[in-house]
Amino acid sequence: MISSQTCPICKKELSANTTMLSPLFPFCSKRCKQVDLLRWDNEEYAVVDPISPENMTEEMAEQFEEEIQKKIDRMEEGSF
Ligand SMILES: [Zn+2]
């Protein structure tokens, strides 16, 4: 029996098909993964309220997704 893993963001138990092989691991969802990325990025976003999956709207998620993608691109460029 594998001990259940919980999402570090929302503390929800990960479903059985969210394994280490999942691109989302250790998060339960894409949104939680985004929330985690954004938490590392608080200075830039000057977030007043802590972002949680509950208060993150679809619109925000889309917007952040773009920002995160840009950031990832930049990180990849800078890593060489
Ligand atoms: Zn989660």
Note down, in words, how this protein is organized.
The chain has 3 helices and no strands. The N and C termini lie far apart (42 Å). The protein has helices at 30-39, 42-45, 58-78. The protein has 2 domains: 1-46, Erythroid Transcription Factor GATA-1, Chain A (2-Layer Sandwich); 49-80. 14% of the residues are buried. By secondary structure, the chain is mainly α. Helix 1 crosses helix 3 (58-78). It binds zinc ion. Zinc ion (ZN) binds next to loops. InterPro entries: DNA_gyrase_inhibitor_YacG, Znf_NHR/GATA. GO terms for molecular function: zinc ion binding. Keywords: Metal-binding, Zinc. One of its GO terms (biological process) is regulation of DNA-templated transcription. This is DNA gyrase inhibitor YacG.
